[in-house]
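Sample 1 of the test manifest.
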Amino acid sequence: MKEKTLQKKKKRLVFRSLMLVFMVGLAAFALIANGKEEQTVVAKGEQAPDFQLKEFTTDKTIQLSDLKGKGIMLNFWATYCGPCKDEMPYMEKLYPKYKEKGVEILAVNLDSTELVVENFIHEYDLSFPILQDKNGEVMDLYNIGPIPSTLFINPEGDIEEQVIGPLTLDKLEGHLQSISPEE
Amino acid sequence: MNEITCECGHVNPEGTVLCESCGKPVEENQHIDGNDQKELLNMRYDGSARRSQTYNRTAVDKVWNFFSSVKVGVWLIFITLIASAIGTIFPQEVFIPGNVDPATHYRDQYGIPGQIYYQLGFHDLFSSWWYMLLIAMIGISIVIASIDRFFPLYKTLKKQKPKRHELFMKKQRIYGQTVAENIDADRFKENLKKRRFKVYEQDGHILAEKNRFARWGPYVNHIGLIIFLLGALLRFIPAFYVDEFIWVREGETALIAGTEGEFYIENKAFTLETYNMDDPEDAKFKEAIEKQGGPIPKTFRTDAVVYERTNSGVPGAEPELDVFKEGAATMNNPLKFDDYALYQASYQLNEFKEMTFKIHDKDDEDTNYGEFTVDLSNPQSTYELDGGYRVEVANYFPDYEMEDGQPVSVSKYPKNPAFVFNLYPPGENDPETSFLGIGANIDAGGDNQYKLGLAGFDVRDVTGLTVKKDHTLGIISLGGAIFMIGVIQGMYWNHRRIWLQPRKDGVWLAGHTNKNWYALRMDIEKAIADTNIEAPKDQYEMKS
């Protein structure tokens, strides 16, 4: 009798626990899924999703996964965005130094007119690759909201940091330093 | 476990209020249903041992019992109801204009109450975490409360015996004693069977029962509700539900959002048709058209080609496209392809597409040294004209504004295009520079010989399409249907029971139903016809 009672009690506890875990799990899923919809960023620490885009002024395409082992600064910008233009000279200034160290800067452009972007590249004399995201596909992939928006991806391909809004020269250098491959 | 052995010999689980077999009130548990303060028995769940009232030992039990409580469930529903009502006082965030900042909009439009509303998160109530948490808790409460009540009730109704305890009989709302010798029990049973009662007998004790299934109505209803909620939950999974919006310019091929890069759409043409009173077909609307004074839209239509991507590539890679479907989307008639439907949802008319310029003498507009046409979404960097003139596009501003005396573009769309042109006359190496925009034609150097003039332009329309995919509708409808079946089951049928107990000097008769007591009394009246059993009294009515 005693043993039967104990067993019943245990069964009840297991059943109740399982039901609660299942239902709380569903509720948690709903809450997280709902939260994600509003999120504008790909989460920190996640693997940066792969993409392939055409480079302006050359006919080359660049694929993110080909750059494994390098630190990547992924900048989303457009010529009609004032703060984006302001940080371009900083990037240009630091690019040669960090290219040596194994960091690549990819600036994904969201304009729709090639001429406008090409003029801009000449005007600012930019040497790092400017990529053309004509359909906004990569922008959607990374859930980019307001620009400028910049992701710093470490040599392992994980997102180390996301900065929404303009960067100062100092901050930019700090972030670039943090994704430089170890010597 | 402290099982309760009734004097009838039946072993009841802990927490039983009325013996499952004979209905005898279990003395120490009468407080559970408040029977100790009443003369009549509270018959809810037939006095079965609801587990929530019984086991409360571990933390899991405590959480379980919290959700099992009907009181808690009603509170959750009540709070959700109040919150939902408050959510309708001011418009939700999705319904305010898209170009305003909600943080200031609510204060500006509705004052202090608006600001409070915004800061408490009521502006986005239905996707706020606490509202979803309330719904989730209601869902959990429904499941647990149902489990805790259905199974004990089911067991009790299955185990019930016709032989009832005296106290059970006496404390029923419908109860009557008959003192007589010549009671026709067989006739009584016949009458009950005619009224579609199921009759059970045990040592001369009779139990007649009908429509027990009506008691399962609430639980069927709850299963429907849970399926409904699960269907709604699936809407978070893109494989089940997509709801996106895209703008597509005429002539442009764009990626269809929500299809994971699989489908593209080319906008062949967007048409906005208005009613025309000179058209014989529309003549019958003449009065209405005249009254309106302006054009009245008749149709919005997008003629489009849907393409499927044939190469599997990483996002951003140049797609190879194959025609998948050609068709049109009009209001309420979506263009359907694969699992998706494209609904005509919005439009913008007359966006600049091309501009044609001509070169003429500065002082004489009638001269013409050549014309060239600029595709505003893809201008060339230089235009060579037949007459030997060459025009270089030094700068292009698709949507220009002046900022600190400098022209800048504020968007990528050619809504207000402007150019800086360098004009090289034949054989010249020094260009003449001029700035051209809508309503602006500035000679940069001041000593230009030639002038560029706008000779014509071409416009295009932009269509706004909603991209929909919904595999949850079937599940949600199924949930709704089961919900309704449960409601009907519990509403239109009533569980009725009549007990007859032989006594030394006659019989006792008792009756119980979960609703519609009048109909139960009518059933009893018909059943006792010609049996010498006296009509029972309604003890509840007698009291009042």
